Amino acid sequence: MLNPLFWYQAIALAFSQIWANKSRAFLTALGIIVGVASTTAVIAALTGLKSKVLTQFESVGASKVFIFPNRPDDKPRNLYPWEKVRLKTSEARALRDECESIRAITPITEVGLEVESGDRKIEGLSVTGIWPDWHEIENRNVTSGRPFTAIDETNERQVCLVNDDAVKELRLPADPVGQFITLGGRRFLIVGLIETVQARFFGLNTSSAEIFIPFSVAEKFQPRDFFMRITALLKSPELAEEGTAEMRWILRKQRGIPDGETESFQVEAIDRFIQQFKTLATGITAIAGGIVGISLLVGGIGIMNIMLVSVSERTREIGLRKAVGATPNMILLQFLLEAVTLCLVGGFIGLACGRLLAFGMTQIPSAQLDEADIPLWAVVLAFAFSAGTGLIFGMFPAIKAARLDPIEALRHE
Amino acid sequence: MSLIEVRQLEKVYRVGVEIIRALNGVDLTIERNDFIAIMGSSGSGKSTLMNMLGCLDRPTSGTYLLNGHDVSRMGATELARVRNEEIGFVFQSFELLPRQTALENVELPLVYAKGGWRDRRPRALAALDRVGLSDRVHHRPNQLSGGQRQRVAIARAILNRPSILLADEPTGNLDSATTVEILAIFRQLHAEGQTIIIVTHEDEVAAHCDRVVRLRDGKVMSDLPILQDSAGRHRGGAGAKGSHELGEQKLPC
Fold first, then answer.
1. What digits encode the pLDDT tens for the residues A102-114?
2. Residue A242 and residue A294: Cα distance in Å, rounded?
3. Do B56 and A325 touch (CB under 8 A)?
4. Collapsing DSSP states into helix, strand and coil, what is residue A9?
5. Domain ranges in chain B?
6. Chain B contact residues (CB < 8 Å to A)
7. How far apart are CA B184 and CA B39, in angstroms?
8. What does the alpha-carbon distance between residue B222 and residue B219 come to, in Å, rounded to a whole number?
9. Long-range CB pairs of A391-395, under 8 A, 24+ apart, other chains included
10. How far apart are CA A376 and CA A47, in angstroms?
11. B110 vs A5, A406, A407: nearest CB
């Protein structure tokens, strides 16, 4: 219907209009520039924060579940003595044997022991008792030697795993496998060197000396009512809700808690924290969307205003174009294209500013924003919204231009 | 079949409570390759008639057949198409786009044409050549003299090989030497077969034409041929309607 020359000249004209009125065009598009820049910057910051936080969550393991004792707040304390509240090894076993949705599970307990190696002696070093599943749950393997096995656990073998920091502190040889150390007065064989994980969670540095022993062995060092927690790994992160419900059901059964009674323990999936954070991030993105809506409205009114000025300035030109054969629709399209082009140029500049702001954020030290970047969808959306603003607010001036009577227009001074 | 057949054309405007009959039953027939001047004082309806003939406006009543097609009942979009293909306008104040070169100005009608955009360059260059501006192709209007600007406008008007070249006071903004130049171009185009209608109030301009239509109060008052002598000079000659009306033609309007 319309020949390519029309499109070419319409777009060329749109750009030449902007070029001929640079400062005016800039001031007009400022609303859109500021709107797009601020919104994309906010989205970039959020995206950076989100990916940072999610990576940190995921480093912990998205399908991990934590179980810990929890005395109900709404009940008198004397109804829930520690003995009733604390987790027991039997409960960990029940979960391991009965829960369908978990892949791996381990009770964890920490016991402060005196550690001796040769003439090195460290008082009160925290030694952690674990099941062999711990390797899979925490995704930590041995760099040398072997991991724990079920036999270590059932036979209560006096074996241990150490990390590099422990090797250094105890002045053990670089490969300590096969060496003996004394823990709490007993001789333990080092069977494996476990890799050290740095800065696992929000800068919380857990990489100090670590020594692991089989849970059954740790139990014997502990008093009768010792504290333990349970960490489990679900078969998949999607099972978060189902899996936690199943674990709660098993534990209620174990503890004989009737329906309606408050639980004396807590089961939390990492996934839930991730969901909460995602909801929060979505909320903030929506607010940013609201801001862009308002700024585009303000920008759009500016566009409409300047397009009306343009139509009135170029009335004779419109008359001439009509005289040489431009139909009303062609004039309409011409002015719409001009408004859209102006908005898209504004959107482009806004995006460039937003990109610059995002880059600035990554340079702020310790702001957790070093991954701030404008995602592709935000770029597409910024252009779509800019073009949409041009279309909506350019429509009225364009209709005005299209409806001009060519005779009146040519007579216009 | 005549190129233009206008029958009982009326145009009525309403200004407040007043009713103005700008055209009050105009009959006019224009043949192909006519070179015609439409004259009349202000308020005579000549501008309204020009707008009608140029398909810029629609009559209140009456018919206007252009090439046998009734254009008096067409919508705005169809009229735009007719203007694009059948009519070339030349205006008193040239109406060139200031930021575009002569060539781009001449190409303008092809922007809105159905076809022909592929060979726009050679066509525009040929049109500029016909008005003698081959050496000013890439100049902008502000780099051209008034006469040159009007020649660009004429090149633009003839680009689409229109049925009618419609000029509205084409020499109104030009000095007398340039006027002669522009009128010579019109004469040349006419000799090449172009139908030309000039709306003017200047006798000197009308004298260059072959036929003069005078309007008064929205009606055709006289419609006379002008005879040319062998030297190409123009003088009033005995026309079909008698010499007594010729005398009137000399009167200032």
1. 899 999 999 988 9
2. 42
3. no
4. helix
5. 33-59+75-249
6. 51, 54, 56-57, 76-77, 80-81, 83-85, 89, 91, 95, 97, 99, 107-115, 117, 120, 156, 160
7. 19
8. 9
9. A391/A336, A391/A339, A391/A340, A392/A300, A393/A300, A393/A301, A393/A303, A393/A304, A393/A307, A393/A339, A394/A303, A394/A304, A394/A307, A394/A335, A394/A336, A394/A338, A394/A339, A394/A340, A394/A343, A395/A336
10. 11
11. A5
Report, in angstroms and rounded to the nearest whole number, the Rg of chain B calculated over CA atoms.
18
C-alpha torsion sign, points A387, A393, A398, A403: positive
Chain A residue with the nearest C-alpha to that of B111: A6
Please tell me if residue A411 touches chain B, with a CB cutoff of 8 Å: no
**Do A325 and B83 count as a contact with CB atoms less than 8 A apart?**
yes
For residue A150, give Cα distances in angstroms to A222, B42, B88.
Answer: 21, 112, 98
Class of domain B33-59+75-249: alpha beta
Q: Which of B56, B123, B161, B164 to mutate to test the interface with A (most CBs of A within 10 A)?
A: B56
- Strands B18-30 and B219-225, by their bridges, are unpaired
Distance CA B21, CA B7 (A): 16
Closest Cα in chain A, distance from residue B237 (Å): 36
Residue A33 in contact with residue A353, Cβ under 8 Å?
Answer: yes
Mean pLDDT of B47-66: 92
Mean per-residue pLDDT, B71-100? 92
CB contact under 8 A, A407 and B120: no
Cβ(B88)–Cβ(B164) below 8 Å: yes
User: Tokens 């309403």 sit at which residue?
Assistant: B14
Q: B234-235 and B227-228: which strand pairing?
A: antiparallel
Structure tokens at B46: 């000549």
The contacts of residue A116 (CB under 8 Å, 6+ apart) are A122, A181, A182, A183
Query: What residues pair up with B13 in beta bridges, in sequence order?
Result: B20
Which range, of A60-69, A388-397, B69-78, averages the lowest pLDDT?
A60-69
A127-150 tens-digit pLDDT: 999 999 998 888 888 888 999 999
| Mean pLDDT (whole number) for A85-93 | 90
How far apart, in whole angstroms, are the C-alpha atoms of residue A343 and residue A300?
8
Tokens of B163: 């049925």
